Structure prediction request, 329 residues.
Amino acid sequence: MQRISIVIPARNEAAGIGRAIKEVLRHLDGLDVEPEIIVVDDGSTDGTYEAVRAAGERLPGVCCVSLSRNFGKESAMLAGLTAATGQAVATMDADLQHPPALLPEMIRRWREGAQVVHAVKERRPGESLATRLRAAAFNLLLEKLGGVSAEGCSDFKLLDAEVARVLAQRLPERHRFYRGLATWVGFRQETVGFSVGKRDSGASKFTLRMLVNLAATAIISFSTIPLRIVAVLGLLTLLLGVGVGAEALWSWFRGEAVSGFATLILTLLIIGSFIMISLGVIGEYVGRIYEEIKARPPYLVGAVFGLEPETAARLQAPAPLQQRGKADR
Ligand code: UDP
Ligand code: MG
Prediction:
């Protein structure tokens, strides 16, 4: 029997997590798999951990990793991938917006040889116009600047154990964009379509600020094009400078007073804003370098239940970057 791990990041999902676990188990029933449900409680304050524990007393294969505080969904998923021991690992949301009914099809694809099965959003009837517009802007930016096509991409995926291991152990970066990384790693990739339903209970845990942060991480971790844009801006200002300079010299030779106070002001303003924007862009990258070089662990575990002792120990292990540093010396 193959063991399948289901990683569910959960932030304040006490109201719906029990039902989500039950639904997942119901859909795995009869597939000849041994389920391992790993809920990662991402610093919830509403008793999500206790709710998972209660579910674990009634249902088989339920475990929980409770992070010491809210570290964000990306870190929670990383903790779940690290803890997973199945031959395949699925990641999905706790709010049933990622339909468990799709799991049998994803598992079938995996059994036929796919190593990464992406669930791709085909329709979004459950999402508001604002959410859809936001997603469209996010994807467009990402594709143009980051070079990763994220159209319809979601965090609902099924990974072969080998790919899960690569994502959890071989990529030492702290700022992560799982959707992009799961594509970046390669291997045999396939997609299956699904339509996004309404949230089962509670409200979205993502604020606009969190989405902007995620977009910045996605772009910065996948591309240096913004830095190139800075260079292009510099080149444009140089051209502008040469043009305005030539005009000024020309007037001077002809003995005319140098005209164009407005031109001067405009040029100053334009160059000034180019410089500020460029500094901001470079600052973003420097900030990320600083964060990465500090090499703090991407999450800390507060409590666990249902995990094997070695799995629990793996969650406490030093981050890959620190290990790598030691090996290099
Ligand atoms: N989530 C998390 N940590 C956070 C924010 C969200 O683990 O800091 C989880 C959340 O509990 C849910 C999933 O990430 O299982 C997706 O969140 P949500 O449904 O709020 O996002 P949306 O569907 O609105 O994009
Ligand atoms: Mg949701």
In short: The pocket of uridine-5'-diphosphate (ligand 1) is lined by residues 9-11, 13, 42, 70, 72-73, 76, 93-95, 97, 204-206 (CB under 6 Å). Residues 120 and 154 are 6 Å apart (CA to CA). Residues 2-207+296-322 form a domain with the Spore Coat Polysaccharide Biosynthesis Protein SpsA; Chain A fold (CATH 3.90.550.10). The mean pLDDT is 85.
